[in-house]
Amino acid sequence: MNQIDRVPRWRMETERLYLSDVTVEDSALMLAVWNDPAFMRNVADRGIRSNEQAREAIANGARKLFEEFGYGPYSMALKSNGAMIGICGLFKRENLDDPDIGFAVLPDYCGKGYAGEAALAVVDYARSNLGIEKLTAIVSATNTASIGLIEKLGLVFERMITMPGDDEAIRLYSMLLTDYR
User: Fold this and answer.
1) φ, ψ for residue 180 (rounded to 5)?
2) Strand order in the sheet with 10-13
3) Does residue 85 sit within a domain?
4) Which of 49, 69, 77, 164 counts the highest number of beta carbons within 10 A?
5) Do the Cβ atoms of 128 and 112 come closer than 8 Å?
6) How many domains does the chain have?
7) Which residues share a beta bridge with 157?
C-alpha cells in the first residue's frame, strides 16, 4: 500500500488512526480491500481487478453515498506512518431503512484492534455529527470475528435476511443510537 499523508482531509481521528472519506484517489486501497480473500469470502467478489475499475466503482458507489446521504466508507490510515490499512463506514442499502456500519481491514493489520477503534469512532460520529438515530449491521453467519465486533459495539441480532440478488441469508443487527453511550 502506498503511504499517503491524509491529515489535510481526515474527518475523524482516534488514538492510532485517521479516518477520511473514500475518494477516487483511494483506488489502490479499495482494490486491495475488494480483492482480499477474507473480503471476497465474507462480503462478496465485486469483480474489480484494476485501478480504473476501482476508481469507477468509487465514483459510482462511495462518492454517491456521500453526495446523497452525507456519509459513506472512510479510509483508515495509521497515524504512525500513514499506511492505508482498510475501511470503516456507513452504507445505505435499498432494502434497509437505516444505515449500516461496515468495516474491512487488510490482512497485515488484522487482529490489532483497528476495526474496533475505527468502528467506535464511526458510531459516535453517526450519532453526534450526523444525527442518525438507528444503526444496523449485516454480516455473514459464518463471519465470527465481525459478529464479535458488531456485538461489542452494542448492536443486537434482529433476524436473518436475504439481500436482493443473493441466495444466502445473512444476520441483521441493530441498535438505537439515542441509547448509545
Assistant:
1) -75, 135
2) 10-13, 17-21, 73-78, 84-91, 100-105, 134-139, 170-176, 156-161
3) yes
4) 77
5) no
6) 1
7) 173
Q: Which domain holds residue 43?
A: 7-131
In single-letter form, the type of residue at position 41 comes to R
The C-alpha cell that represents 133 in the structure block: 438515530
Phi first, then psi, for residue 126 (nearest 5°) are -60, -40
Tens digit of pLDDT per residue, the chain (181 long)?
Answer: 444 444 446 889 999 999 999 999 999 999 999 999 999 999 989 999 999 999 999 999 999 999 999 999 999 999 999 999 999 999 999 999 999 999 999 999 999 999 999 999 999 999 999 999 999 999 999 999 999 999 999 999 999 999 998 889 999 999 999 876 5
Q: How far is the C-alpha of 133 from the C-alpha of 154, rounded, in Å?
A: 14
Beta partners for residue 86, in sequence order: 76, 105
Would residue 165 count as lying in a domain? no
Half-sphere exposure of 172 (CA within 13 A, CB side): 17
The end-to-end CA distance of the chain, in Å, is 35
Q: Tell me how far apart the alpha carbons of residues 95 and 41 are, in angstroms, rounded to a whole number.
A: 22
Q: Whose CA is closest to 154, among 131, 171, 176?
A: 176
Rg of the chain's alpha carbons, rounded to an integer?
Answer: 15
CATH classification of the domain holding 51: 3.40.630.30
Size of the chain in residues = 181
